[in-house]
Design goal:
Layout: E1 5-7, E2 20-22, H1 33-40, H2 49-64, H3 72-79, E3 93-94, H4 95-102, H5 108-120, E4 126-128, H6 136-148, H7 154-158, H8 164-172, H9 193-212, H10 217-227, H11 232-257, H12 264-269, H13 278-284, H14 297-307, E5 310-315, E6 325-328, E7 338-343, E8 349-353
Parallel strand pairs: 5-7
Antiparallel strand pairs: 1-2, 3-4, 4-8, 5-6, 7-8
Helix pairs in contact: 4-5, 6-9, 6-10, 8-9, 9-11, 11-14
Length: about 350
């Protein structure tokens, strides 16, 4: 049976980490390769070629029984989709159908989550499941930003974002040990971390401007389908978001030291023993995102401020409470664009899309 771990309820004021809580009700067993990847091993993109072959071969056998292959070449050519052919978001599913299939039974937890999905279905008709690795919060947010943007944020137009990595390295020496996923190989080896992040920031700027320049929502959707394919382009964009978060975190820390006003979440961000300054925030938290951990609640606030975008999240395990719908941040709902995500546990995030059924 598939087992997922859940995070205890965490309010914005308590968003300083948290322990995990076993899910009350198990899902059905794996029925697709994606399900097996999620349950039985790390994301394929984090594995070497030989490990990937073993994972897929084991996954095939788990689902269909032993499968005979002519060799590694036949395995990849005949059986397996290439990474670049797999979108990081699954096709649209009807929200209520998904809810009924994933949350069977009459336990308190199942009933609560189904109720949350029913309320969500009053605004959206469909759900797109996001690849279940530790980038999912960043991936879901960026997908929604690019697929809905009609104009770039001010900072993207007026600030020289391609120089941020170099400036941060010169000022605080934070970039030299940056960790990149295996897909983000440094070309011929002549490119250092600063240069690589500069390239990814320029890519973020170009893709955002391309999305804004699309003539219709359908064209923006097609652009996103091409971008979110799990390769270097997608992961490079997600690393650029991490750099953007670090830049904003550094700016807020400087303001705090100078006695200036900062958003309330900054005091929570830097009150943690493991994150008392930008260096420890990067070393103990941000550098792990995409590898061994996702974003904590307090870091969702930072992501919203970094993008200058309000992230509205339907938190289904908080259904029928005042925290069912949470905004990251909640003080710019009127003047920043808003994107919407959904989570069952504050750990994994999916994307609600489309009009409610019947509209």
């Amino acid at each position: 049976m598939r087992r997922k771990r859940r995070r205890k309820n965490v309010t914005a004021a308590e968003a300083m980490g948290g322990e995990e809580d076993p899910k009350e009700e198990s899902h059905q067993g794996p029925s697709t390769l994606a399900d097996v990847r999620e349950e039985y091993g790390p994301a394929v993109e984090d594995l070497g070629v030989s490990e990937e072959e073993d994972l897929y071969r084991g996954a095939e056998e788990l689902i269909q029984g032993p499968v005979k292959h002519a060799g590694p070449e036949a395995l990849f050519e005949v059986t397996l989709p290439k990474v670049e052919d797999r979108c990081s978001l699954e096709p649209m599913l009807d929200i209520l159908s998904y809810s009924e299939s994933e949350w069977k039974g009459n336990t308190t937890k199942s009933t609560l989550i189904r109720t949350g999905y029913t309320k969500l279905s009053q605004r959206f008709g469909s759900l797109r499941q996001v690849r279940g690795d530790n980038y999912c919060a960043l991936r879901a947010t960026l997908f929604q930003v690019l697929s809905t943007s009609t104009q770039p944020p001010i900072w993207l137009q007026v600030e020289h974002i391609s120089t941020w990595a170099e400036e941060l390295e010169a000022r605080e020496g934070l970039i030299g040990q940056w960790m990149f996923p295996s897909e983000c190989r440094q070309g011929d080896g002549s490119e250092d971390a600063v240069q690589q992040l500069k390239r990814y920031m320029e890519l973020l700027q170009n893709r955002w401007q391309a999305a804004v320049g699309c003539s219709s929502a359908e064209e923006r959707q097609r652009l996103c389908e091409r971008v979110f394919q799990g390769g270097e382009e997608e992961l490079g964009l997600l690393e650029a978001l991490k750099l953007l978060m670090l830049v904003r975190a550094s700016e807020f820390h400087t303001t705090m030291q100078e006695g200036g006003d900062v958003p309330v979440f900054c005091w929570l961000l830097y009150a943690r023993d493991s994150s008392d300054c930008p260096r420890t925030f990067l070393a103990n938290h941000l550098s792990r995102v995409g590898f061994s951990g996702g974003l904590e609640q307090v870091e969702m606030f930072l992501l919203g401020y970094a993008l200058q975008c309000t992230i509205q999240v339907y938190r289904l395990y908080m259904t029928d409470t005042e925290e069912f719908v949470t905004y990251y941040p909640d003080d710019h709902k009127e003047d920043w664009p808003c994107v919407c995500l959904v989570t069952e546990d504050d750990r994994h995030y999916n994307v609600p899309v489309g009009q409610p059924n019947g509209l």
